[in-house]
Write a structure and sequence with these properties.
Elements (H helix, E strand, L loop, with lengths): L2 E6 L2 H12 L7 E5 L6 H11 L14 E6 L2 E7 L6 H5 L12 E5 L13 E7 L5 E6 L10
Parallel strand pairs: 2-5, 2-6, 4-5
Antiparallel strand pairs: 1-7, 3-4, 6-7
Length: 149
């Protein structure tokens, strides 16, 4: 399993890194974010969308639980599982109504539903190092080994 770690020094650098990853994503990919509040998960998702060629305005799905971006040819489903405390609660959110095989899933607070995720998901951990500096660790997929910084 590939494990890559990057340090970004601004939201723009975080978006640029995510854009490189987004360019390599395909339908059926599941991104499982790990990180505290304000770690940059939504900022990272903005970069994923941009890299996927989506022009939608990406916002936090905290209160809506999910935002979808794009169209049937290329879709990003951005979930926030902060208020979900397990697989039973997940049933009531409509999570399983979204076609995982037809879009890319980006899931904030994925640790709350880890047992519901496919075995082969991409784990992205984000950690505050300073006001705008982040350590971003990507695990689980060889496709990203050549993205550089």
């Amino acid at each position: 399993m590939t494990k890559l770690t990057y340090i970004t020094h601004s939201p723009e650098e975080t978006i640029a890194l995510a854009e490189k990853i987004g360019a390599k994503l395909k339908a059926g990919d599941v991104i499982a974010y790990l990180g505290d509040l304000g770690a940059g998960k939504t900022t990272f998702t903005r970069g994923l969308a941009k890299g996927m060629g989506l022009s939608d305005l990406v916002t936090s799905p905290t209160f809506a639980l999910v935002h979808t971006y794009g169209s049937e040819e290329r879709m990003l489903c951005h979930f926030d599982m902060y208020r979900i405390s397990g697989e039973e609660e997940l049933e009531t959110t409509g999570f399983y109504d979204y076609p995982m095989e037809e879009c890319v899933f980006a899931i904030e607070w994925s640790e709350n539903i880890i047992s519901a995720l496919p075995e082969k998901h991409i784990r992205i951990s984000m950690e505050h190092l300073g006001d705008e500096e982040r350590r971003i660790t990507i695990e689980g997929d060889e496709r990203f080994a050549d993205i550089g910084t």
